[in-house]
Amino acid sequence: MKGARWKFLIRFALLLAVFELPLLTTPVDTYVARPVSAGIAATSGVILRAVGERVVVSGTIITAPCFAVDIQNGCNGLETMLFLVAALLAFPATARQRLLATFLAIVLIQAVNLIRVTTLFLVGCHRRQWFESFHLAIWQTIVFATAVIFFAAWTRRATVANADSRA
Questions:
Q1: Contact 122, 66 (CB under 8 A)
Q2: Of 14, 10, 12, residue with least CA distance to 87
């Protein structure tokens, strides 16, 4: 059992480095991270307009008469998503289980992050004094906790399914 834990931790650390380090390079920032951020801004703009906010989206910036935000790296969900994907791929499960979990994890983290960006804009617009707390503490905790809870629930299910298939 101890050997399996070490294998998981080593695989996780290696995958995390392989996934996260490229985010520090200019090409990945230009061709991956910024387009993801712009997509989140555009989608948030659609949602915000649907709830009556007069927003304009330009690239990664959402602007309204009441507030503006610029979705930077670290606020686009990529780091949390890659952290979770590294953990899922490192876990000893079938390839099918890991691929399905990876797909669901990407959708989940990006959906939660979209809710995060939209609500942060609304908080900034209507309760600006709460923005920093929501941005730096509350929503970061919620997004990361979502990843941890998903991983814990999935590993329990994957472990049970693997035990059932061996029986």
A1: no
A2: 12
| Residue 66 near residue 126, CB atoms below 8 Å | yes
DSSP state of 69: E
Q: What is the pLDDT of residues 105-161, one digit of tens each?
A: 999 999 999 999 999 999 999 999 999 999 999 999 999 999 999 999 999 988 766
Distance (Å, whole) CA 151 – CA 112 = 15
Q: At what angle do helices 2-20 and 78-90 cross, to 10 degrees?
A: 150
Q: Which residue has the tokens 């915000």?
A: 48
Closest CA to 149 of 90, 115, 116, 104: 104
Q: Which residue is associated with the tokens 């979770």?
A: 84
Q: Is 62 left (phi over 0), alpha (psi -120 to 50) or beta?
A: beta
CA 10 – CA 158 distance, rounded (Å)? 20
Say which residue the tokens 């079938």 belong to.
94
In the predicted structure, residue 103 carries a pLDDT above the cut 90: yes
Q: How confident is the model at residue 50 (pLDDT cuts 50, 70, 90)?
A: very high
* Cβ contact 45:57 at 8 Å: yes
